[in-house]
């Protein structure tokens, strides 16, 4: 019943007056992929989505779906369904009408409309609300109506515009899981737009991190998280984000070291790699808070820092630690017995170290 | 809306579109023509006015203007109109704006809705309910012919509208701002004058515009409360329609003077006009 | 101790300070007149019969009112104009708003509003006079061209009881249609974008978009604008007075004009008072509906 739905975006540029919203963007979405377009406000993710949907048109470049160029195809002919951020409710009818709307537009016969609407709404758990007026629904229910309206069309592709942004934390968790399940069950290709990295990482298979109209990195969730290719991506993902410490590359005797001003790290083993990738000696050292190992005072090689404040995050604990003039986050998987002002001994394992060129912001390691 | 237009790239003749443009053109023409004809006629001599077929091309003259404004004293009436208009506007704002603020902020304190509603119904009443006693009051005080009486009447009629409109504008400014000022030590009154009021400047302008236009054009109260030398333009004009015949030329001249300033004024501030007309409605 | 009292006193009285001027105005210009009129209507206040001035006569004035044919005629006139002008103004106004919204670019729209504002901002007196001029029996523009086309051989369109009401209605419509148009236009401009985009994606026709999105969103606004115009139409006076003075005879006398006549032409404040109060009640009822409509949105 459903054939393949892959999307190819090639060199798409879109400008609004002086601002370039999309700058030569290329993206490939395979069939059945669940992709997240992640980035801060103004990065272009919404513009890109609108171009895919047909609500906006690229100035240059092409968009292909299943090999067919869809640049000039109107939105309703693209077989793409869009779930809007603010639900885009039709005030002139009840829940049933809102879901049935796309079917009415296509002149689907009455009994089939009824069948499909009932089926879809049951599946989303809102079957009992069909007679209700839209104004009587709460946020979660409205969102589901929007979903149902998108699904009832049995589209090839599914676009979601910041679906969880308007929800409270509890509801967000529930709906997140549901969305993932629905997309999996229906086998649809889906693209979700979000500014929340947690949302993107938990829902999607692949993430395209965007900033200032460009896609910085497009890879699986794992790779984007563990192997960021630039400072921005490293910084954007993770909660709390990666610790990024400016450091200078220095030669100490025979060792190549990164000097942060608070401590030094021997990076001699990566000498070749570093030399190959950059001639700059101003670099940035990165390590994720959860990768820093906490040892004890017996460890002579450990870096000593002073705990500024300890934040409780569920069953984890984040220590905001000060080492000379450097401030970092240290995430411990369990709650430890430290107090503010205590010394804490840390080790930075080499396998989790990231190095970035300060000027180009590209990853070296 | 742009997406709609983009997808309709068919080559058929857009009948509906053409009909719409024709309609719009006709509507605009009809809206303008009477005024245009008015303007034109104000420069005609009496003979030209009486000409059949009606003349569109003729020798213009300023006689009518001279005759009306100098000979017949319409300049005085113009002055009255301006004075009353400005006074009514100023007074309305001075009285109404604080009240609007009170209604916006002190919600639980006063029997808010009832009082507000009550004040608004006054706007709804036909002029007569107030006019008769007012007429008698002013008669007794001896203010009957004076413009002051009219100013009061205009203030009265517009007060409710001013309060309604300004309350809406005040509502748009959150109470947090007030409270912040008061925490910083300012009294409520001070906060009002120095902080909140300037923020509502567009609202004040809009309201003032409406009151001014209303007062300028107003007829009924002016008819009853003024007479002789204290008349405003709208009331004086029918005086040109005598049993002996109507001095159409002068009528047109005065009509133009009544209309054109308001039109220019309205054009300059039409952004505010639109905002105000719709404000109470499109919340 | 005294410090606390001072602060609390200020807090208590400040709101009233803001309201005092308004309250004075309302008291003097509203309540007092209202009760005075009420009193008048129950007495014989006719300056025409000075001998019985001030004598209470119970509901006599009201009975007179009910039995006066001219009174009922004036109601009929008012309702006729009302019944035709309101729907015409509404549909024309809405249509203009739609055309201005859908078919015209932003820049042109801003320019076009100027000429369209002319009828709205013109003083009712002027409207009356200009149209009287246009409809004038001998040289009026309208009369001349109408004659050419074969209508109205008998002088001014305003001079015949059969044609005076339609003529007056046309003037009314000319004057106020864009009031409705402008407000609805603003309503259209304020419509949210999202539902329309969703509808575009769903493949909806223009009609569907109108029926399920535009119209439901505009309904409250339409209601308000209709009621506002309705109340104004009931109180129609200025233009009528100038255009026809109620004539020929009383065939174009609105209720408001009738009230004017009883009060300020006959100087019968007792009778006039009764009529005024009757009128007031009607308008009051209408304004109640108005407030119900506006407050329901909160």
Q: What does it look like?
A:
The complex is a heterotrimer of chains A (365), B (283) and C (298). Chain A is an alpha+beta fold. Chain A folds into 2 domains: 7-236, Rossmann fold, CATH 3.40.50.300; 243-357, Nucleic acid-binding proteins (OB fold (Dihydrolipoamide Acetyltransferase, E2P)), CATH 2.40.50. Chain A has 9 helices and 20 strands. In chain A, the strands form 4 sheets. Chain A has a 6-stranded mixed sheet with strand order 6-7-8-3-9-10, with helices on both faces. Chain A has a 5-stranded antiparallel sheet with strand order 13-12-11-14-20. In chain A, strands 15-19-16-17-18 form a 5-stranded antiparallel sheet, with no helix packed on it. In chain A, helix 2 crosses helix 3 and helix 2 packs parallel to helix 4 (139-151). Chain B is mostly helical and 283 residues long. Chain B has 2 domains: 2-63, no CATH class; 71-279, MetI-like (MetI-like fold). Chain B is 74% helix and 1% strand. Chain B is built from 15 helices and 2 strands. Chain B has helices at residues 2-7, 15-41, 46-49, 63-71, 74-105, 112-124, 128-141, 147-172, 175-183, 188-199, 201-217, 220-225, 233-236, 248-268, 270-279; strands spanning 241-242, 245-246. Chain B is globular, with a radius of gyration of 24 Å. Chain C has 298 residues and is mostly helical. Chain C folds into 2 domains: 2-30, no CATH class; 68-295, MetI-like (MetI-like fold), CATH 1.10.3720. Chain C is built from 12 helices and 2 strands. In chain C, strands 1-2 form a two-stranded antiparallel ribbon. In chain C, helix 3 (69-102) packs parallel to helix 7 and helix 7 (161-189) crosses helix 9 (206-234). The longest helix of chain C is centred in the N-terminal third of the chain and has 40 residues, at 2-41. Chain C is flat, with a radius of gyration of 25 Å. Chains B and C meet through helix 2, helix 5, helix 6, helix 7 and helix 8 of B and helix 1, helix 3, helix 4, helix 5 and helix 7 of C.
